[in-house]
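stuck on this chain:
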Amino acid sequence: MIVTRSSRKALRTFTREAWPQEYSVLHNNLAIAYLSMPTSDERSRMREALAVQSFEEVLKVINLIDHPSEYAMINNNLGNALQEQGEVDEAVAQYRRALALDPSYAEAHSNRGNALKELKRLDEALASFDRAISLKPDFATAIQQLNGQIGRIDSRHPQAAKVAIKVSERL
């Protein structure tokens, strides 16, 4: 709570017009703080919505031409916030935007894989995890997700099982 209170206070000083870079950093940090708070209480939905608003605000300020990696990162973070809200299709779209800007963004590939897994699009999810691991071979999150998927794949998804086993053999 102290972080969010301090960030909101700083936003009154570092306005979008006068301090666009600082304003963007503050909104990004505020959104991450909202998403890091426990989600077990009734206010979690409100915090998730505030996180989405903060990331959207950053995208209005960050210049794609001057800051392409930051723009990709914010799209990825917005995808995470949307996925937390249950807006999984919209999250996939944000991850796609991040990857269009930076195809080597392993975290965005892994996050996209998680969202696709949630949508039961296992072949695509496995391909995303595979890509994340190929870009960052020691990427523990993607490896864990992939290994978790292997146990959940049944005979209805034989191609997904083949991909998962192939990737796990490389590890």
Q: What stands out?
A: Confidence is low (pLDDT under 50) at residues 153-157. The radius of gyration is 18 Å. Residues 2 and 33 are 10 Å apart (CA to CA). The first helix runs from residue 2 to 13.
